[in-house]
Each structure stands twice: as C-alpha cells, then as structure tokens.
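Think of the structure tokens as a kind of shorthand, similar to the way a musician reads notation: each symbol stands for something richer, in this case the local conformation of the backbone. In the example below we present two proteins back to back. Begin with the first one, reading the sequence and then the tokens, and try to describe in your own words what changes along the chain.
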Amino acid sequence: QVQLVESGGGLVQPGGSLRLSCAASRSMFGAMGWYRQAPGKQRELVASITRGGTTTYADAVKGRFTISRDNGKNTVYLQMNSLKPDDTAVYYCYGGRLGVDYWGQGTQVTVSS
C-alpha cells in the first residue's frame, strides 16, 4: 500500500511564501506533482515533475511556483512565492508508480490579509 503525506500548508498574507512537501511511502517511478481545488471550482493541475526532472506548470503559477523532487527521499516539493488570494485552495499531491496514480489527503493553503 502506498501513502502520500503532505505538509506545509497554512495561512499566509498576500505576497508571502509557503513550501509544500509530499513524502511517499514507496518509490514513485512516474511523475509527481500538485493539483489544487478551490471552493466551487474544479480540481486543476498546478505543477508536475518527471523522475528525470522535466517540469510543467499551470500558466497561473509560472514564475511564482517552483516544483522539485528528491527521488532518494520519495518526496516532491512546491515552493510558492508571491502568493495571491486566488491561490487559496486545498492542494493535493500525487505520484505515479507502476501505472497507478496515488494521492495525498490534501493540505489547505489560505492567502488572506
């Protein structure tokens, strides 16, 4: 059984920064990344990264967010800078292993003054 455990969410003021972490209990051979879901909206991809380090970002976060991963620690990170109120959402990490995607439980990020 594979588990993904997220950490690092919280309340931050506009313009602030947060770093999310997601640790998997087994090696993730496929892509890892982050989705988010705001109230009343569909879940959307924020960023993803392959095992080799190729990254993809949503247009809304390009230049502000940086995704990275440590394959030795089975962990993916999301550094979020210049946060905006529109970034408020529950952030979910995922990881691919042997053709199956696994998901974390979600962590709340709230950007508000």
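Once you have a description of the first chain, move to the second and do the same.
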Amino acid sequence: QVQLVESGGGLVQAGGSLRLSCEASGSTFTMTTMGWFRQAPGKEREFVAAIRWNQENTATDYVDAVKGRFTVSGDSAKNTVSLQMVSLSPEDTAVYYCAADRGFLPYMRSARLYDHWGQGTQVTVSS
C-alpha cells in the first residue's frame, strides 16, 4: 500500500521560508506526477504546485498566488517531491497535502486525478 509522508511544516513569521518534503513509500512503481495542495480553515482544498516527469522533460505548474515564491522539485526515481516556500504571508496558512499518481496527469491541478494522498502538514504564517 502506498503511503505518502510529509514533513517540514511549522510556524513561521511573515516573510519567512519553509521547505516541505514528501516521500511515497510502499510502491514498486514510479510516481509520474506529484503535487501539493492546501486547505485553509473554512475553505476548499486548492492546488498549489505540481511536477510531472517523462522521458523527454519535466513539467511544473503553479497556482498564480505562489508563482515566484514557491518552487516544486523532486526525484522521480525516489518518489519524492519538495516544496520550497519563501516570502510567506499569512494567506499561505493552511494544511498542505502531498499528492501522487503513477499516471502522466495532463491536468496536474485537479485533485480528483491523484490516487494517493498524504495526511497533511500544518503551515502557519504569523503576521
């Protein structure tokens, strides 16, 4: 059974940085698409960033609100993905979830396409 384990959340002041990491274990298959979603109190889960690998290239996608501040990276051979977050603001406060799928997801922003999810890690940004 595939398990996604996130780490790196915590409390940080506005303007600070955090790095989230996620590892998919228990799978003999490579996760072709891995991403991050977040859910703030009283709001729906939203897409943050994702990365997708194939033989030709690596593709990434970001929600507009984090472009230029967050960077997604990973290692497909190790089934790991990270999210480097800088210039954090209180609006980034949420539970961040790692998601992964064996498939080449053409639309990485859709949560329903991912088969595997982590338990979430809390990110709190104080003003």
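Compare your description with these statements about the second chain. The longest strand covers residues 18-25.
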